[in-house]
Write a structure and sequence with these properties.
By secondary structure, the protein is α/β, with parallel strands linked by helices. The chain has a single domain, classed as Response regulator (Rossmann fold). The longest helix is centred in the middle third of the chain and has 14 residues. The model has no long low-confidence stretch (mean pLDDT 91).
Length: 129
Amino acid sequence: MRSLVAEDDATNRKLLHTFLSRYGECDIAADGKEAVNAVRLTHQNHQNYDPICMDISMPKMDGQRAIQEIHELEAAAGITKTARIIMTTADTNMHTIASALLGRCNAYMVKPIDIRKLKKEIKAFALIQ
């Protein structure tokens, strides 16, 4: 499993990175723009991230826009098995949740991140046992 954590908060970034690193390579991005660039680089190396944990509110480029650009990159690269994206945020507003899901994320987690719930989501994607 090769994963990506896109999170501007250092504490959340470390928590997610520490957990996901148990299952394989895990890269980090401090904002949406870095996340899109990381995905672009992996595609150039004929690889893909799966899963991607994406914060909604980040500087330079928010998570919604980053997801849109990531899906555009996947389409341009001819990738049919797209990365599973878990949107993370402290926002519990139902409009935000619906917007994230319509933006083609696969799951939504409210901060603080519960590692047991995250593990359950990743198991549901059949990425770990």
